[in-house]
Design goal:
Glycerol-3-phosphate (1)-acyltransferase, 3 domains, 7-stranded mixed beta sheet, 13 helices, disordered C terminus
């Protein structure tokens, strides 16, 4: 039953939602994912829940994702989260007494790998919108090497993953997922630090790394070049050019307000009002994209089905269908609702 729920309901529904949420998701290195072997995916962590959603919907393997334990705690949320293969990981900030609960989580991880299924672990430990790789922890080595200690004949592939977004908080942005070449942990049984170092090097190759020193200034320069951060090669070229040649960015062009933006805003005004209220209470901007996706996944279809019913009863079915078609093709304009003529500062939806 759980297999059916995950592969035939959750997975397709999330994939459909992402199809409308992102303008484009490009996938590279999918051939590196084995079909019948245990896998631990090791991605960077920029965009809260969106990272796991984007990665896990790009392949058909059953994947269990380790997330921070603080989102668990209530019976109904625990049931829902576990039904979509999320597992709690306890950190020091959750209290030293809670850390022992990780032993149960690790035991479940060993069982998952023993069955030849997949895990997704964020080695950085927490998320950040900054576009560079932060120091990674050794948790994944404990799980990978621990599973081998339980069963020395178990075959596991560690796959570094890079997720890059054109705009991490922007609706209808672009994304890319790079699956790196598999690493065999059998070669590092007695060398966990070397394994950790190799994974860190491989991850760094798969993501956009803006130099940490003077980060905001560096990013502003790259933004001036019109960097599309979902384009890994193009972004690396711009970073290299900026560091080596110190070229000045081209002047930003003023953006004109498109009249269709007003019409789209009126059509979706309940969402804009709701998001304006919600965004004020969000302390962590990395959750912006995840909250927007959840709102759109559940409320957007319901809202437009109700409006379709309204137009069909008030006018006719052809008019209602025309309205529904307009709502779908105008989605890209909704993402630009809060962009103003000043091209440097904007408040995207």
């Amino acid at each position: 039953m759980k297999y059916f729920w995950y592969h035939f309901i959750v997975h397709p529904w999330m994939r459909l939602g992402l199809l409308f949420f992102f303008q484009r998701i490009r996938v590279y290195g999918k051939k590196n994912i084995p079909k019948n072997k245990a896998v631990i995916f090791l991605p960077n962590h920029q965009n809260a829940f969106m990272d796991a959603l984007v990665i896990n919907t790009r392949h058909k393997r059953t994947t269990h994702t380790l997330v921070r334990a603080s989102i668990f705690g209530k019976k109904w949320t625990d049931f829902l989260l576990k039904s979509i293969n999320l597992m709690p990981v306890y950190r020091i900030r959750d209290g030293a007494s809670q850390m022992n609960k990780n032993n149960e989580t690790f035991k479940q991880c060993f069982e998952i790998l023993e069955k030849g299924e997949c895990l997704l672990i964020h080695p950085e430990g927490n998320h950040s919108l900054n576009k560079f790789l932060r120091p990674i922890s050794k948790g994944f080595t404990r799980i990978g090497l621990g599973a081998l200690a339980e069963n020395p004949n178990l075959e596991i592939d560690l796959i570094p993953v890079g997720v890059n977004y054109s705009h991490s908080k922007l609706f209808f942005g672009k994304a890319s997922v790079h699956f790196g070449e598999a690493i065999n942990p059998q070669n590092f049984i007695e060398k966990p630090q070397e394994l950790k170092k190799l994974v860190e090097e491989r991850m760094r190759e798969l993501i956009v790394n803006i130099p940490e020193e003077n980060y905001e200034d560096n990013k502003a320069i790259l933004d001036g070049f019109g960097a599309d951060y979902s384009d890994l090669i193009g972004s690396k070229y711009l970073i290299h050019t900026y560091l080596e040649l110190k070229k000045d960015p081209p002047p930003l062009k003023a953006k004109k307000i498109n009249p269709i933006h007003v019409l789209v805003s009126i059509n979706n005004i309940p969402f804009l009002i709701l998001w304006k209220r919600i965004s004020k209470s969000l302390q962590d901007p990395a959750f912006h994209s995840s909250i927007k996706f959840c709102l759109g996944l559940f409320l957007f279809p319901l809202y437009h089905i109700l409006l379709f019913w309204f137009f069909e009863n008030l006018f006719s079915r052809p008019i209602a269908l025309s309205y529904l078609l307009f709502s779908l093709i105008s989605l890209p304009y909704l993402s630009k609702r809060f962009k103003f003529i000043n091209g440097t500062k904007h408040k995207p939806f």
